[in-house]
Amino acid sequence: RLHSHSRFFSAHSQHRAMGARALLFLVAVLGRVVADEDIILPPTLTDPSLPERLMIFMPGGLVPNEYYKLTAQAIQKATSDVRLTVVIPEVFQKLCIITCPHKSACAPLKSRIDSAVSKSGFNSTNPKEDTFLAGHSLGATCANYLAQGYHYEFAGVLEFGGFVDLTGDASIENFSIPVLHMAGELDGGGARVSTMAGLYAQSKKYADEHGLEAALKLKPVQVLEGMDHSDFCPGFFVTKTKDCVSEVSREVALATIGKVAAAFLHLNSPVSEDTKKSAMETMKSMLDFTTEMVSPFLTAFQLEKGELQGQPEGVPAGPWCKVAQEEIVGLPASDVAKLKVEPCELITAGLHQFEHQHTNYTVLPDGSLEVSCFSDVEPPAMSISESQFSAKSVDCKMVDATRVEEQLHIETNTSVECADINRRAVEVAKKLLPAKSLKRHEAQGRGVCYLPDYTVPGNIGPLWVKSNVKMTETESCLQVASSKLVSTIKSPIFPGNHYCKLLSVSAAMDWMMTDSHKPFPYHGPTDQVEDVFTETIQI
Question: What is the distance of C-alpha 116 from the center of its chain?
Answer without folding.
Answer: 32
